[in-house]
């Protein structure tokens, strides 16, 4: 913000050069600041600082953690079918659900597009286990409760996901892992909707 306020309008490439970063690395942060109404982006012009009193408000929000704003997760059992997952999505009006085992440990994530891809083959959703279509741990992008909301928002932008499971490591007992490996307990979820509401509140404070 200091760079843009002092030198704007300035391009993303020029900002990245000042910070000795690549444009790709800086993109999520610029996206967040633009969404929050702190910076304005114009094609072929660059970024301009427009936030009034933004630094103080943004500092407050940087102190917010994922644990402060997490929601109750929408989950299905690892023994569920794709049909069960689809019904849960419809009833809960969500586009992503988490798959957990009997101990509440994360097994995977299923998004709407995963089921849509399966539907192209005219498959019988009732007979297909949800594990067939889910993204499995450790490929799932997650957030920790002590992580900042800004960090979670950056992950959503970078990986193009709408919801992150909020998890904490838990050592599996011998009954579930012969290697006593770390597994993830699901504590909640944080979504783009939650982030958008926070940015809307931030915008009101700035204006």
Concise structural overview:
The chain is of the alpha+beta class. The protein has helices spanning 2-7, 12-18, 23-35, 54-62, 66-69, 82-92, 112-119, 149-159, 192-206; strands spanning 39-42, 46-49, 75-77, 96-100, 106-111, 135-136, 163-171, 182-191. The strands form three sheets. A four-stranded mixed β-sheet has the order 3-4-5-6. It has a two-stranded antiparallel ribbon with strand order 1-2.
Mean pLDDT value: 84
Q: What is the β-strand count?
A: 8
CATH superfamily of the largest domain: CBS-domain
Give the domain tally. Answer: 2
Given helix and strand content, the structural type is: alpha+beta
The DSSP helix count reads: 9
- Using the alpha-carbon principal axes, give the shape: elongated
- Measured by DSSP, the beta-strand proportion falls in 15-25%
What is the CATH top level name of the largest domain?
Alpha Beta
Using the coordinates shown, work out and report the CATH topology of the largest domain: CBS-domain
What separation lies between the terminal Cα atoms? 17 Å
Main sheet properties: 4 strands, mixed
Radius of gyration: 20 Å
Q: Can you give the helix content as a percent range?
A: 40-55%
Q: Numbering strands along the chain, what is their spatial order in the largest sheet?
A: 3-4-5-6
SSE series: HHHEEHHEHEEHEHEEH
Level-2 CATH architecture of the largest domain? Roll
């Amino acid at each position: 913000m200091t760079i843009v306020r002092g030198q704007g309008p300035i391009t993303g490439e020029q900002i990245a050069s000042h910070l000795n970063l690549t444009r790709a690395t800086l993109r999520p942060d610029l996206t967040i600041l633009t969404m929050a109404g702190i910076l304005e982006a114009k094609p072929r012009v660059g970024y301009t600082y427009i936030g009034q009193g933004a630094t103080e408000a943004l500092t407050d929000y940087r102190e917010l953690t994922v644990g402060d704003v997490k929601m109750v997760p929408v989950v299905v059992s690892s023994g569920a079918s794709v049909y069960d997952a689809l019904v849960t999505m419809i009833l809960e009006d969500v586009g992503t659900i988490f798959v957990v085992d009997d101990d509440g440990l994360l097994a995977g994530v299923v998004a709407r597009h995963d089921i849509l891809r399966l539907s192209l083959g005219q498959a019988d959703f009732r007979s297909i286990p949800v594990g067939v279509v889910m993204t499995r741990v450790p490929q799932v992008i997650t957030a920790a409760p002590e992580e900042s909301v800004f960090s979670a928002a950056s992950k959503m932008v970078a990986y193009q996901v709408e919801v992150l499971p909020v998890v904490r490591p838990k050592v599996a007992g011998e009954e579930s892992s012969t290697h006593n490996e770390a597994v993830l307990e699901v504590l909640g979820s944080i979504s783009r909707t939650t982030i958008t509401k926070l940015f809307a509140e931030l915008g009101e404070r700035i204006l």
